Amino acid sequence: MYDLTNLSESDATQCGEALAQAASGASSMEEAAGKIVGHLYDNLADSETGAKSCALVRLYKTHPYGELDPELRGFAQGILGHAPESEDMKCLTLLGTAGEKPEWNDRSKSKGHKAIPLPSEGFVSQIPMISRLVGQFGLDVNAVIRPDPSLLADLERKEYNAFHVPEAVGSPYIPAQKEFVIPSGVQSVLGFGGMLSTGDLFAVILFAKVHIPQGTSDLAKSLAAKVKEAVQPFADGNVFS
Description:
The protein is α+β, with helices and mostly antiparallel strands and 241 residues long.
């Protein structure tokens, strides 16, 4: 078990190795994502009581609209309000989810976050959590929604900062305060991730029921490399199960 309130460097290393191991043998990115979020949900816990530290753990990846299945395309179009101008429009797509409620363990049952369209910088700025996540990662929004092929190698090699909201209650960056944050006891939110060789962003987001200090946020960046190691082999191939 790993204590989010007091994560050591050795804990982070051990957790990263366990994530890579948990995802080994997966036949798609979706399957690997499911194993990763499942391991984090099960093992981020109080070392004394065994109480799980997270209400919800999710893994997202940007994916071209035109390569989504009809159901996800319809979902994204419903948020957008019309058909996208380009089939290449990126959508922040839910690939893995694990949490306290049964419906939080099936990506197809997500009510509002299955495939979030990212058509423009202006549209993204209206989604505070995504805008903040991209900014705290140290990325320009345009690098996410329209990655420059000539810069992909540099973007892929870069180490990204973590997305960290120490106080989730009342934060403008964490939506659904009354519906999710407060009733689920979410205290802090932590996200980590990076860029794949395809120019797609991946991000793991922890909605924690404990306070996550800055030290844990700094160490969590090392987990991103192991998650990338697990999902990168499927970037050009089997994304969905």
